[in-house]
């Protein structure tokens, strides 16, 4: 594997993916604030268009809060089958440029284009051509970050959103990181960002000024990661063989349920959603887990590991039903149910010209 300083990494991130698909397919939604999800009391926003984001409506926001911020917000129900199909189109485009593709979700992926499969002059032009093909073949826009490692490429893809790209060259990487707020860094969540703020760490420069022993005292095993990214260092390769460890789906009911049949129906719906993914990905696991969250927010799980992997929708449904029935009947209202399959089986599955990062 080439040294990380020699890699040419592109991070491609679709712009407001779910909402953009809905606006593409329904012209009446274009230019309007759109949220993918349900406007129910306990619904959440799965995705928001850029018009909705102008009102601070974002994914994971409760629907009631979203409507309070944007009273004319238009909710559309999610169509995951459509999003998955578009995602497959996009990944087919990626495959024309490299075999080293690491998907992060339906709408973003890392590409290692160090090997110049298409003979394009630079990685910058490669990213530009990929984005142009995505627009031509799907009618959707994508943003891209180009750099010499994954950490910087992902940061860069946010820099010119939507429908843009940004490059971080080896001679600018460390200095550029110093100018950014640490809350933008991968691996620094809201809780960690607040802890860093208390310690006087708000920018990459602040983080770089701290010694490794200091970071180890305050952040334990994450200290070395923070120490390196503050210097623009990330040795992780693009890993196309990264195996997904589980597939799950859950739903929050509009009201607390105590009726057995309604609760079971909710579990079966989630089992069917999980099976759709397993069948298409040809990934089959042995362990089935059912999750229940009650009205008082107490959460429990029930799991069963089968002798062989689940290879039919019927088996998954039967196992999920048996697990939920082990906690029924209940006097407490059920707020949420979920189904997860894990323990996946392993899937069976000359020198190239180096590609310059830039000119």
Please sum up the structure shown.
The chain has 359 residues and is of the alpha+beta class. It is 36% helix and 21% strand.
Walkthrough of the structure:
The chain is α+β, with helices and mostly antiparallel strands and 359 residues long. Among the domains are: 17-79, 3-Layer(aba) Sandwich (MutS, DNA mismatch repair protein, domain I), CATH 3.40.1170; 173-229, DNA polymerase, domain 1 (Orthogonal Bundle), CATH 1.10.150; 246-344, Dna Ligase, domain 1 (2-Layer Sandwich), CATH 3.30.1490.100. Helices cover 36% and strands 21% of the residues. It contains 13 helices and twelve strands. It has helices at 17-25, 50-53, 63-69, 80-94, 123-138, 150-157, 173-178, 190-198, 204-208, 212-219, 223-229, 260-281, 313-325; strands spanning 9-14, 34-37, 45-48, 74-76, 101-105, 108-112, 142-147, 165-167, 246-257, 285-294, 299-305, 334-344. The strands form three sheets. Strands 5-6-1-7-8 form a five-stranded mixed beta sheet. A four-stranded antiparallel beta sheet has the order 9-12-10-11. Strand 5 (101-105) and strand 6 (108-112) form a beta hairpin. Helix 10 (212-219) crosses helix 11 (223-229) and helix 12 packs antiparallel against helix 13 (313-325). The radius of gyration is 23 Å and the shape is globular. The two termini are 23 Å apart. 35% of the residues are buried. Residues 1-5 and 348-353 have low confidence and may be disordered. The active site is at 108. Residues 9-189 form the UmuC domain.
């Amino acid at each position: 594997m080439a040294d990380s300083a020699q890699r040419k990494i592109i991070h491609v991130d679709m712009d407001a993916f779910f909402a953009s698909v809905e606006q593409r397919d329904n012209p009446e939604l274009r230019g309007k604030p759109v949220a993918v999800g349900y406007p129910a009391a306990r619904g959440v926003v799965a995705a928001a268009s850029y018009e909705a984001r102008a009102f601070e409506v974002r994914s994971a926001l409760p629907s009631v809060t979203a409507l309070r911020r944007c009273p004319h917000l238009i909710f559309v129900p999610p169509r995951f089958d459509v999003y998955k199909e578009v995602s497959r189109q996009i990944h087919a485009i990626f495959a024309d440029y490299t075999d080293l593709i690491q998907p992060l979700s339906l709408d973003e992926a890392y590409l290692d284009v160090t090997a110049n499969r298409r003979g394009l002059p630079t990685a910058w032009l490669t990213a530009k051509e990929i984005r142009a093909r995505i627009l031509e073949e799907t009618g959707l826009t994508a943003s891209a970050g180009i750099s010499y490692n994954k950490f910087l490429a992902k940061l860069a893809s946010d820099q010119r959103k939507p429908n843009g790209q940004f490059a971080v060259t080896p001679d600018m990487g460390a200095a550029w990181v110093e100018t950014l707020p640490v809350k933008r860094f991968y691996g620094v969540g809201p809780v960690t960002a607040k802890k860093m703020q208390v310690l006087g760490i708000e920018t990459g420069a602040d983080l770089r000024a701290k010694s490794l022993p200091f970071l180890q005292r305050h952040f334990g095993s994450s200290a070395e990661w923070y120490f390196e990214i503050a210097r623009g260092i990330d040795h992780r390769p693009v890993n196309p063989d990264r195996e997904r460890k589980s597939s799950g789906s859950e739903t929050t009911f509009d009201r607390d349920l105590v009726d057995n049949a309604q609760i079971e129906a909710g579990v079966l719906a989630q089992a069917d959603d999980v099976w759709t993914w397993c069948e298409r990905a040809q990934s089959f696991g042995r362990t089935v887990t059912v999750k229940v969250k009650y009205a008082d927010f107490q959460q429990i799980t029930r799991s069963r590991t089968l002798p062989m992997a689940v290879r039919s929708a019927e088996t998954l449904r039967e196992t999920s039903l048996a697990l939920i029935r082990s906690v029924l009947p209940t006097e407490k209202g059920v707020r949420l149910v979920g189904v997860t399959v894990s323990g996946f089986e392993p899937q069976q599955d000359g020198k190239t010209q180096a590609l310059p990062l830039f000119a």
